[in-house]
Model the fold of this input.
Amino acid sequence: MGTLFDIKPPAKTTVPETKKIKTPLPKKKIEATPEAKVETKVEAKPEVNLSGNPEAVIGVGASGTRAGMDFVSNDIMAAELALSTIGNFEPLDIRIDHWKIEEVINEKYSNDWVDYLPRTDRPNNRKSLSLTTIPGWNHQSPPSLPEATKNLGRPVRESEFCVPTDLYNDCDRTGDPSKKSLKAFLDEWQPLGRSFIVNSGTGGYFVPHRDHPGMPRPCFRLVCFLKNCGPMDYDWLMDDRKANIEVGRVYYVNTRMTHRTISWVDDSWHLILNVPMTLANVDKVLKNLQHRH
Done:
């Protein structure tokens, strides 16, 4: 048995010292002096004009074709109903002496073709000559609504293209009594709206589009194919169906339907007439249908 002196005191417990973690002070932001500041400017890339024409409209341009329904008179409703029953690409019993048109253009206007609706966003191999135009303009003035809108700085109506050009008056020749001269044909439909000849080169085209799909429309279209528009030369498609074309024949064409064109050769010419939408003009179409009883 041990004595009191045999009891050892408890061992001392040592507590480890807590290490102090030094937090680095934030670095001071050193600002450049005004002399050292260099501003980096990002220059906007200029828009590429794919048409090559400095007067081209940007994109499709503004033509005011977003019209919907408006008041329609009984006369216009009757005219629309009559046109809707005859077809969308209907030949008329009217032929034009296209050889004499080519003769006149080659003699006096062969160097006067101008780009038809050049656009900055795409190249397009097509040109035009105006037959009727805005007062003060001539046969080389732009016949498209977007170009006219751009040049005049305001919306333009089809009926404003009402003045016959020198080309209109010079195309008064015919060598075939069964065919009309271009001038005689145009005179029969006066007063006319925007009317012109399109010259499509190889690859020249019109994208799928509709003309004046709203109601009422200001005009309807008569079309005549003048040169290099045979089945292997030129395509006019209505709702993706290729139209049968007779050169020199006048057609009523329902261009409110989606249509597109393309030329596979150079110098493919066709005539476009915008005829005011009246009962008298529609009556004239009905009386001149090629196929009837």
The domain at 86-287 is CATH 2.60.120.330 (Jelly Rolls).
